[in-house]
Specification:
UDP N-Acetylglucosamine Acyltransferase, domain 1, 8-stranded parallel β-sheet, 27 strands, alpha/beta, 11-stranded mixed β-sheet, elongated, 2 domains, single chain, Udp N-acetylglucosamine O-acyltransferase, Domain 2
Amino acid sequence: MPEIHPTAVIDKRAELADDVTVGPNTVIQGDVVIGKGTKIHSNALIADGARIGENCEIHHGAVLSTWPQYLGFGGEKTTLEIGDRTVIREYCDLNKGTTHNHKTVVGSDCFIMAYTHVAHDCVLGDHVICANSVQMAGHVIIEDWAFLSGLIPVHQFVRIGQHSFIGGGYRVPKDVPPYIMAGGEPLSYKGLNIVGLGRRGFSKETIRSLRKVYRTIYRSKLNTKQALERIRSDMEVTPEVQSVIDFIENSERGIIR
């Protein structure tokens, strides 16, 4: 049986795995599914539409799957989906989706630090880290292994590429390509994320190749279309290089300077 504090309020329709732990004064509404091994600390609100995976940890005061902050939302059935082993720290606020995507998604093995806001229809991949007070508008996409430092506001519909790193306190108004570091105001390219790529086992050859890619994009004085044409013609297009090309070609907001 789940270990439930006597002051917790849990709707009888909620589906809790046998070894879920629920702390004092937490409220769990009816249309909720929580996987095995997950721990919900005190004073949390798990609202209708939450789908929480296994071995997650939801800390004190977190608010999950509440209505989107979108005036056109009319109470339609949508969800917030959280993968396995993800940690949501104190006072985070994660809204469920609108009828645009019908769901907000946070992947597995993510670490979402205190006071972070994940708005409606956002999609976070696996191993994403958001430091304190990251504030996402709606429809943001953050790919696997991205790291957002603290106090970052992210504009709606922005995409942040895999293995990228964004410095603290900087506004993100445009797409951030994969594998890079970004910082400054306005947000701009600051080099390859060498430390992160090394920690995750990228080879020296791959790192050299990616460095050449971004020198062509940001330092060659070519426009973006010309830079991508040169990359295709002058380089071996490895999977990592192709992911950069695809990201930039599919960017709707445009990439950072």
